[in-house]
Design a protein that fits this description.
- This protein is mostly beta strands and 100 residues long.
- The chain has one helix and seven strands.
- Strands 5-6-1-7 form a four-stranded antiparallel beta sheet, covered by helices on one side. It has a three-stranded antiparallel beta sheet with strand order 2-3-4, with helices on one face.
């Protein structure tokens, strides 16, 4: 899966820690809270080398990979605001087999 960090004003900072097993999302909508998302077993996350603000989630099991992607997506949902106006978040841009 490839995910893009989308923001209008406050840039979302994604930090990969724990050898690609944990994602820390900072500065979502200017909040001070750090969102920590742990990947499920066998799933690795890394930043894209070519594209800015893109995460690449890979793993052997499609179910665990898609569930880890969903955990990242759900961690940055906009609450108590008009979601048509506040489009910030982490969205899946493409999925499928990654050719190497």
């Amino acid at each position: 899966y490839k995910m893009r960090l989308v923001y209008a004003h406050f840039p979302i900072n994604a930090t990969i820690t724990n050898g690609g097993n944990t994602v820390e999302l900072r500065n979502f909508l200017g909040e001070k809270r750090v969102r920590v998302v742990n990947m499920l077993p066998g799933v690795k996350v890394e930043k894209s080398a070519t594209t800015k603000d893109e995460l690449v989630i890979s793993g052997m099991d499609i179910d665990l990979t898609s569930r880890s992607t969903a955990l990242i997506r759900q961690s940055c949902l906009v609450k108590h605001k008009d979601i048509r106006k506040f489009l910030d978040g982490v969205y899946v841009s493409s999925h499928g087999v990654i050719d190497e």
